[in-house]
Design brief:
Elements (H helix, E strand, L loop, with lengths): L19 H6 L1 H11 L2 E4 L4 E4 L2 H9 L4 E2 L6 H6 L11 H12 L1 H26 L5 H18 L6 H16 L5 H23 L9 H7 L4 H14 L2 H16 L1 H9 L4 H11 L5 E6 L3 E3 L2 E3 L4 E5 H4 L34 H19 E2 L2 E2 L7 E2 L5 E2 L4 E2 L2 E2 L11 E12 L2 E8 L13 E7 L5 E7 L9 E6 L7 H7 L6 E8 L9 E7 L3 H14 L2 E8 L8 H4 L6 E5 H4 L4 H4 L7 E6 L1 H10 L8 E5 L12 E5 L5 E4 L5 H7 L17 E6 L2 E2 L7 H6 L2 E3 L4 E2 L3 E4 L2
Parallel strand pairs: 2-7, 20-21, 20-23, 21-22, 23-24, 25-31
Antiparallel strand pairs: 1-2, 3-4, 4-7, 5-6, 8-13, 9-12, 10-11, 14-15, 14-19, 15-18, 16-17, 16-19, 25-26, 27-29, 27-31, 28-30
Helix pairs in contact: 5-10, 6-7, 6-16, 7-8, 7-12, 8-9, 8-11, 9-11, 10-11, 12-14, 12-16, 14-16
Length: 721
Amino acid sequence: MSASLLPPAPGIPVADAVTLEALNRDPWPVVAALRDEAPVHWVPALNRYLVMGFDDCRFVETRPDIFTAVEDRHPVDRTIGRSMIRKDDPNHAPERHAANRALRIKVVADRWRPVFEENTRVFLDQLIAAGPGADLSADFAAPLAASNVAALVGLKDVPATVVLRWSTAFMAGAADPGADVSIRRRVREANAEIDDVIASVVAGSNRAPDGTILAAMIDAGMSLETQRANVKLAISGGINEPKHALTNAVWALARHREQHDRAVADPTLFEAVFEEIVRWLPPVGVISRRTTCEVEIAGVTIPEGAQIGACLHSANRDPRRFTAPDAFDIDRDSVGHLAFGAGPHMCAGRWAAQCAVGQVALPQLYARFSGLRPVDSEGAAFAGWTFRGLETLPVTWDAVRTPRATGAVVPLEVTVVDKSIAAEGVCAVTLRPNSATGPLPWQPGAHLTVEFPTSDDASVERQYSLCGSPDEPDYRIAVRREEAGRGGSDYVHSRLAVGDRIRISPPRNNFVLYPAQRYRFVAGGIGITPIVPMIAEAHRRGVDWSLLYLGRARRGMPFLDWLSAFGDRVTVWPSAELGRVRLADHLSDVAGELVYACGPGALLDELEELSQQWPADTLHVERFAARVSDLPNKDFRLNLARSGIVLDVAAEQTIVDALQSAGIEVATSCLEGTCRTCETTVVAGTPCHRDSALTEAERQRSMTMMICVSRSQTSELTLDL
């Protein structure tokens, strides 16, 4: 008998009052009560230990050496075969790496967003044809998700109705203990059909490589069995999450009218809507794992071989991680939620779902329909526990608008209509969209990715904060010439001319201005650029604010004339005149305020150190360069503790690059240090953390690191690989 079927370990409470019926009906009060009582429970109805807290659930997800995804005779394996989700490294990494080739952030933006946009237009027309009272799920969200997934995996010619039938069969099979004859028959039929389709795609793969997941697996030499299992995995799990996120978001916005009105007026907010809805109503409620050894979680000991459930419903509403967690609030900083898991098994389709729903489907949906709303938001019925969402949501509307091309193509073409000197060494550039619809909506803190051509017919991309007004017909940026830069600033200053046509990606905002009673802005040098529209917005709202603006000399500090109109709200501090500033003198009491800062890494490091004495979530920063960028890249030796392999990591390489050059595949996703997929345990040595995912306390402990961007401060570094 496995340990999971034995009586619970001593000291762990038994939640024998919890029933599947109660969880399916309304899990939130159930998991909240469990979380308040104890961090871990034995739940007989689930036949597993349920882990409740955010940090503990993330621990379960990020330590596959202790909490394995491998489980013999698992119903998912019985249904679709052994896919990457039921494997651990080293078997998991090559399959995940192949899938990631099709699902990285930039690939999603460049390759898949146009596909998502076209599919969205098709199914919006279907929803319109169905008329008021149509089911948002059946007539729009479900077929859209099915078509998007079919394109991603490489089955683009399969109708959405067929993909949905396959997904339904596989989900039923995964939930069935094996006793239902009709479910087993439907699973067999779905497997036979999809195996035939995959065989035909594989036969023609050499003639038409297309960047899909299936093509990547073929190119990587994966076995046919592996290809089939992972395509079926995507079809099983890749439909419910975006479908539920979309329908849940429409339902939630209807019940939060102020947030609804703001998002409709500013479609860039729909990305925040997406992130908050999957935090608030996670499409996946629990992640199953099995312990490989005896382990302590939150002070209690769980035996080896125990079945574990990391309760994401509870973790994403843990008040120790999120303020007012039971509220739906698109203004909250929900970064780091666990709706898509964490660690090596974080959902590979996370960026695709964010793009398909938050960047495309929701903005297009509300752009096409005036007065879109559920027929009966009060009577909407959620279903499920492990997979939870609205299966039906009848909607109505007041009118249908003519579709607009706004944001339909990535990248966008713009023309340089003005170029001027904003300060010594700073060039101001005005970019006018070539589309008749004008600029895409953006909010203070947003930035553009600008593409510059190079002499060898290639291009480079650089990010610049928007420093104009969202109400203007153009985009405005300001660029400081960096002699030791990577070429972007030199191109702007030396080669870019009025009349030039260049390409940009739509505005993105990782530096959101959240509501506050008072703001303290701190800008260092060119870090003033994202702060300028923030000041304008605070002034427009009538909110109290102040600015500390630092620079070497006044002649090199742009926007001084504009800022002078605000009088003593603005403190200008040129170090050539006044010496080095003492930040603590200007930020002595920030209780109840938000501090926004942008500038050199040393300034932000000092602010982060100072903020240790402030209330949580007071400081918000944006870095133009990687964290600890003042430390030069150096060669170092990398020791892999488990395999005994020793590698030399060159100054121009990342750890991931060095591993892949040696034929060692590791799980990665964003490659920007934000998603924690590549989080790896540090055995010895001191990491040079350059991610934006770890908390300051986690950086100080240095128990783990993000190997996609972080390096080593010591000559040798040993990782648990």
